[in-house]
Amino acid sequence: MKNLIKTRFGISIIVLSIIAFISCTKTEDENIDDINIDLNTNYTEEVQAAEDNATAENLSNEVFNIIDDASKSSNNSLNNYKKLDGTDSIKITKEDHLISIDFGNGYLTKKGRLIAGKISASYNGKYLDSLAGYNCYITFENFSIDNNSIKGFKSINGKGLINGNLTYELSAVDTITLANNEGTITWNTERVRTWTKGANTPINWLDDEYSITGSSSGISKDNKAYNVDVVTPLIIKTECKYITQGSLKLTVSGKKPITIDYGSGDCDDKATVTVLGQEVEITMGY
Predict the structure, then answer these.
(1) DSSP the chain
(2) Is residue 1 part of a domain?
(3) How distant is the alpha carbon of residue 69 from its chain centre?
(4) Is residue 3 part of a domain?
(5) pLDDT band at 175 (very low <50, low <70, confident <90, very high)
């Protein structure tokens, strides 16, 4: 759940790159003309859905990161959410199987994220248990990240060790009111996160690696429904800023799908986007 889809790449670059690529390779074939027409007239909805999905992924991942940190903490503080000066003034309480995390009216983290409001997480079982049984239900009170208001709920279900790796089922039902009155998006997800490396050093994030599978769906701020499926498992290395491996397919209802391939494991900012059979390498930004 840590750094899960933190990549909020420049979606507009995808559009410009694909159109430029196809235009440069255009022939007299009518199929190529059809592709150009389709991209120019119908691609806007896919772009907006991809941007909104990236936003929802990023914000949801941050919430799971916070809960992950709090669940492993033994001193009622968040080890990975310090201020720029290295201090920590977040109020955390743990009692009667309830974790309460209060960021107050606005808390600027060392990573530069402005977090405000309260998260509550009721749980049973042990987060790092090798046996199935841990479960956690997460709710919000006046909560926002970078002025994006988040309502809804999330859940974590520990499945214990599967093939030697701690495995968790993650779900979310979110309504996100975007900052600067940019609109509202909804986002639902059902995913499985397998902790493939670093579980023996739970406080140290830098050696952690995860494999992510599953799907999500949402409604963009332009009121367009879309679905996202993980085609090949996403590999998340917390020492890297970007997803290092795996692929997604995003489909807006009634439109042609976009495929995003993150490569074969390199810790870089490159990905390949495929639309209508055309491939373009992009540089991701966040």
Answers:
(1) -TTTT-----HHHHHHHHHHHHHHT--S-HHHHHHHHHHHHHSHHHHHHHHHHHHHHHHHHHHHHHHHHHHH-SSSS-TT---TTS----EEEEETTEEEEE-TT-EE-TTS-EEEEEEEEEEES-TT-SSS--EEEEEEEEEEETTEEEEEEEEEEEEEEETTEEEEEEEEEEEEE-GGG--EEEEEEEEEEEEEE-TTSTT-GGG-EEEEEEEEEEE-TTS-EEEEEEEEEEEEETTSSS--EEEEEEEETTS--EEEEEEES--SSEEEEEETTEEEEEE---
(2) no
(3) 17
(4) no
(5) very high
pTM beyond 0.85: no
* Dist. CA 241–CA 7, nearest whole Å: 7
Please name the amino acid found at residue 224.
K
Residue for token pair 């900052």:
179
Say how many domains are in the chain: 1
Using one digit for the tens of pLDDT, what is the confidence trace for 48-95? 887 788 788 778 878 988 898 888 877 778 877 777 777 777 888 888
Instruction: Evaluate whether residue 249 is within a structural domain.
Output: yes
Residues 185-243 have pLDDT tens digits of 999 999 999 999 988 887 777 788 889 999 999 999 999 999 999 999 988 887 776 77
Residue 243 lies in a domain: yes
Range of the domain at 278: 11-283
pLDDT score for 283: 62
Predicted local confidence at residue 241, as pLDDT:
64
